[in-house]
Design goal:
The protein is of the alpha+beta class. It contains 4 helices and 10 strands, in the order βαββββαβαβαβββ. Strands 1, 4, 5, 6, 7, 8, 9 and 10 form an 8-stranded mixed β-sheet that branches. Strands 2-3 form a two-stranded antiparallel sheet. Strand 2 and strand 3 form a beta hairpin. The radius of gyration is 16 Å and the shape is globular. The two termini are about 20 Å apart.
Length: about 200
């Protein structure tokens, strides 16, 4: 099992890994979750997949096992910034505007985590290991990018996993139902050490 952080600068070194991750996102979010998201050629993408973002892929023999996207909260492309802030600003009709307890941050030391998934093809006996690899690389990459915290909209049950692996994960908004799933915004400190 390998873990790779992709960027527009290095994706050419990794063959089809980026396209395969977008295909895995398509399978997870559009096929399985039945979310209405942009797609082309069997790949899911949106306005936040820009050169400013980074993508972390857990993979083995070209098969994507898990992934996450990191986006700086300082980024702007046209009217869009980052998903959580744009939802709060009322630009996204699929995510409630009241998802945060305070105004969405815009700071170089805060990055957003989005499009987090573990493939349904990952066997139950490997899921925790895959999740640990994904979380570990997310923390490492975020720290290298200068982040002291990561803001994410995650399933409401995920903070238990975060605590289990030693992440400091604090609620940043109410638990809400989005697309049939209970979700919550959280702040994840990059200062703590993982087990």
């Amino acid at each position: 099992m390998q873990v790779t952080t992709l960027s527009f600068e290095n994706m050419h070194n990794h063959g089809e890994l980026f396209a395969n991750m977008l295909r895995a996102r398509h399978q997870t979010f559009i096929v399985q979750n039945n979310w209405d998201l942009p797609q082309a050629d069997g790949m899911e993408f949106d306005q936040y997949d820009t050169p400013a973002s980074r993508w972390i892929a857990v993979h083995e023999f070209g098969r994507i096992m898990a992934g996450v996207r990191l986006t700086p909260t300082t980024h702007r492309c046209g009217i869009y910034t980052y998903m959580i802030r744009d939802a709060q600003r009322g630009l996204l009709d699929t995510i409630p505007a009241n998802l945060l307890d305070q105004e969405a941050p815009v700071a170089p030391h805060v990055w957003e985590s989005s499009r987090v998934f573990v493939s349904s093809e990952v066997p139950a006996k490997l899921r925790f290991r895959v999740q640990m690899q994904l979380i570990s690389e997310m923390v490492s990459s975020a720290r290298e990018l200068g982040a002291t915290s990561v803001l994410g909209l995650i399933p409401a049950t995920s903070p238990r996993l975060a605590r289990r692996v030693g992440l400091d994960c604090q609620p940043a908004g109410p638990v809400m139902e989005i697309d049939g799933e209970k979700s919550q915004c959280v702040n994840i400190s990059m200062a703590t050490k993982m087990h």
